[in-house]
Structures are given as structure tokens and as C-alpha cells.
Amino acid sequence: MQEFLRNIPPIHELQNHKKVRQIQSDFNVNKDQLTSFLQQETQNVRKDILSGLWEPAKESEIEKEILSRVYKNVKDWITPNLKRVINATGTILHTNLGRARLSHEAMKRVVEVASHYSNLEYNIEQGKRGSRHDIVEDLIKELTGAEAAMVVNNNAAAVYIILRAFANDQNVIVSRGELVEIGGSFRVSSIMEESGAGLVEVGTTNKTHLYDYKNAIDDETAMLMKVHTSNFKILGFTESVDRRSLVKLTQETDKLYYEDLGSGAFYPFQDEGIGEEPVVRKILNEGADLVSFSGDKLLGGPQAGIIAGKKAYIEQLKQHQLARVLRVDKMTLAALEGTFKQYVKREENQIPVIRDLRKSLVEIQEQAQKFIEHVGELKHFKLRVTDAEAQVGGGTMPEVKIPSAGVAITEESVSAEKIEQKLRQHEPSVVTRYHNEQLFFDFRTLTEEEQSELVYIIKSIDQQL
């Protein structure tokens, strides 16, 4: 062992090794960074020899092992942690894969604003300080019919600031059937507790009546809150109170009516038989004082929490101390503006979420068939077009199954798990799913560019087997 330790090369010798110079050239790392990697891996090899974790067969293997480890670590270090992924799962709003893809218009706005200075908080006409709230407020008002609006960093934050501002040390009445838990074990009840608001549950899990709300209202009541159950659906013997009745009740009792939509939509998906997601404008037209919803779900924009409603309430929220804590940055606002303007210009089908939801089954089947033709003959894989069902995802429209199609892939000598692993570990990573116990690419979530890439990826993996 001591002989092996004595043969660990010094750092200055490794620095001059031709493979180290090649690493420096390939990955464009400076000398100090590379020296740090050399020192780290030399020390690790020494520890592994001493502990018996690694034993070289001969002395010459020590230098080779150090250089191999340095190469791998430099490559890993230079590779971004947040990477592009090809989503072949058919889940349009895949929470683990970043939810909504931005439109080209939104991306263009982000790049332009990120690359230059901007009037984020500067009023160009008046030549003085402005407000970032103004950047997208008029667009939200136009799209929703609201008197005023503001943006925070996500919908959970929107719920929190509304409860904190208007119900701190007071009570909020919510139906038991609407006390939802969203992704990551975040519960409406927990957010309410953190805000300082008291939760008053009414009704039962499956049935809540108007008299339940009436009987619960007292001097300590600040608001009635309705939570849209976008991530689950109760079926069977159920009953809930409609929005108009709750609005009327709050007007009669001088309480605030707030609706947390979770997803929220500007596009009328219901008109095309896709789910039952309410349009934000309709909710405000029916008298809601405040509504909040996400920017990166059915709207198809970046992560954000959008609050719209009566001007008096929105102005209070803008002046609240939490408004600064929860505010969004210039790139989020740029992406929101680009997305909202496409709605205003009736260019919704250029927003990926809406485009993918509305894509016809025939179109998807044709794309899958053309893909197989472009791939051509393979040594190992067998491909065939298969019909399936896609889903919206992102905690939205849980009951909606969308007819879809794609390509099933089989290979008798290699397990589906092994092929899935190779696809997942490819650059870019390809995330698939299983359908009828076969590895499956759902083409509803694949762009034409990604389909072309996938042709090359499939051929490449087939040749490696």
C-alpha cells in the first residue's frame, strides 16, 4: 500500500500531462479550476487506497484513475443542473418536467428584457420611478374584466397574501369538500394557518349547503372562500353551493368573497368539450371580489400567482408589506406579457399548452406514422403506432382523458427498463411512459423538432445494442 501511495504523482506533474491539457481545451476551464479538481481527486484516490475501497493492479493505473476521475468531474461540473428534457409522456402540464412550455413570443420577450436594461420600475413618459405592477395589469384587466390586478410569485403566495391582508386574526369559512392538498403536501388549511386566519369548516366532504355558510357567519368572519378542486373530483352523492348564491350571501352580510381557482383559464376549454375549468372572466362577472390563479398551468405562461378583482382590495394588496416579499422579477413579467398579448390578439393556438390540448387525434396519428417511416429499418427495435390517452397534468382537469397516439417500442433481447434508462440518460434526456406494458412515446407532447431529434436518438441507441 505504501508503495502505491508513494507513486501518486505530484500535482505539478499532472498539470503538465497531455490529457489534462486536453481536458482544459475541451471544457474551457481555467488553470485554477483544473488544479482544484486535480487536488481533490488525488486526495480521493489516496483515501480510497488507504481505506481499501480501491486497489490498483499496478502502479501505472494510479495516474490513469486520477485523470479519469478528473475528466468525469469536470464534465459533470460544466454540464448545467437544470437541463432540457424531451417530454414523451403525454402529460401536457408535467409538474416534474417544468409544467407549461412558453410560446416563442413569450421567450422572445424574456430574452429581450434579460439582455438589456428595462423600464421595470421606471415611468418613461414622466421620467420618474414607476411600478412593476403596471406592466401587465392592463392586460389582465382586459382579459378578465377585473377592475384591477397584480402578480406574485405563485398561486400559493397569492392565497397567502390575500388571507394575511384581509383575514389575519379573523375567520375564513370554507367547505370541507374544498380543503385541498396541492403538490408537495401543501394544504390550503396549512397556508391559512400560516397567514394568521382562522379556518371555519362547514358542511361535509361530499355535501355543503347554503345554510351551512349562513349558520357559520358571525362578527369574527372576514370572508367566504371557495377553492376550486382542480386536482381531484368527488363523484356520486354530492352537493355544493353555487358561486352566485355565495356572492349574494357575502353582499348581504358585508363579507368578502374570494375564490382560489388553482389553475384558472382564459381560454374556454369547456366550449370544446375539454373539462369543466371555469373561465376567470365568468367568475368575476358573477360577483367575486377577488380571484387568484396560476400562470404556468392552463394559462401557458411562467410560474406566477395572478390576483384579479375589485380595485379597492387590489390596492390594499399592492401596499401590503408582503407584496415586496412575493413580487416577481422582470423575466417573469416579460413572459407573462408575451403570453397575455397572444390571448388579446387571439393567437391562443401559438401557446403550447392550448395547442397541445387542441391537437386532433388524426394529426397525432399521422405524425406517429411519419416518424416510423423516417426511422426506417432498425437492427433491434420494433416500432408501431398505438392509440392511447393523454392527460392534462399539473393538478388540473383530473377527470379529463384526451384521446392520443404515439409509438410503442419493443426489443426482445433487451428489457424495456434498460431502453427507458438509455433514453432517460441521453442528452437531451427523453422521458417516456409505459402503455400496455410497453415503452411508449406519446406524440401529443412532442413538437415536430423533437420528433426529428427522436429519430436520431432511436437510431443511435439501436446501433449501440
UniProtKB/TrEMBL annotation:
It catalyses: L-seryl-tRNA(Sec) + selenophosphate + H(+) = L-selenocysteinyl-tRNA(Sec) + phosphate. It holds the Pfam family SelA. Its cofactor is pyridoxal 5'-phosphate. One of its GO terms (molecular function) is L-seryl-tRNA(Sec) selenium transferase activity. GO terms for biological process: conversion of seryl-tRNAsec to selenocys-tRNAsec; selenocysteine incorporation. It comes from Pontibacillus marinus BH030004 = DSM 16465. Its EC number is 2.9.1.1. This is L-seryl-tRNA(Sec) selenium transferase. GO terms for cellular component: cytoplasm. Converts seryl-tRNA(Sec) to selenocysteinyl-tRNA(Sec) required for selenoprotein biosynthesis.
